[in-house]
Design brief:
binds magnesium ion; alpha+beta; binds uridine-5'-diphosphate; about 140 residues; NDK-like_dom_sf; Alpha-Beta Plaits; four-stranded antiparallel beta sheet
């Protein structure tokens, strides 16, 4: 995957609250092109693997429960400087610290249920995109 791509998930809380359309609109209006997109549900094993880096953290069990409780929207996005610009668009992990107008400020309930995922590096964007999509489902 080229380094102008990032990976996102609209997490179960955002889907449950009916925010898929509004969040995708904000992502598109911010200059990101949708490369791949699907509604899917992670299994417990999926979520444990996806968040393996956090396996020693106290919130890991809750995070896996949350991320598997309902469907998510997974997407690969493209834009110059995609990883950094998308992290700016979503805002801080804790919505209480997120800047005005960011997706987490607008739609996240708490540091745990924070509406969206955004990759933190080009390397992880490629790994996370490949976790959810085969090459033939990226356009
Ligand atoms: N998380 C949590 N409690 C914390 C920190 C993180 O429940 O104290 C959850 C939250 O859903 C977050 C995810 O774990 O989005 C991954 O954490 P990370 O530090 O990678 O934050 P992110 O990269 O998503 O901003
Ligand atoms: Mg992270």
């Amino acid at each position: 995957m080229a380094t102008n791509r990032t990976f996102t998930m609209l997490k179960p809380d955002a889907v449950e609250k009916g925010h898929i359309g509004a969040i995708l609109e904000k992502i598109s209006a911010s200059g990101f092109r949708i490369v791949a997109l699907k509604l899917t549900q992670m299994t417990k094993a999926d979520a444990q693997a996806f968040y393996a880096i956090h396996s020693e953290r106290p919130f890991y069990g809750e995070l896996v429960e949350y991320m598997t409780r309902g469907p998510i929207v997974a997407a690969v996005l493209e834009k110059d400087n995609a990883v950094e610009d998308f992290r700016t668009l979503i805002g801080a992990t804790n919505p209480a610290d997120a800047a005005e107008g960011t997706i987490r400020k607008l739609y996240a309930a708490s540091i745990g249920e924070n509406a969206v995922h955004g990759s933190d590096s080009d390397e992880n964007a490629a790994i996370e995109g490949a976790f959810h999509f085969s090459g033939r489902d990226m356009f």
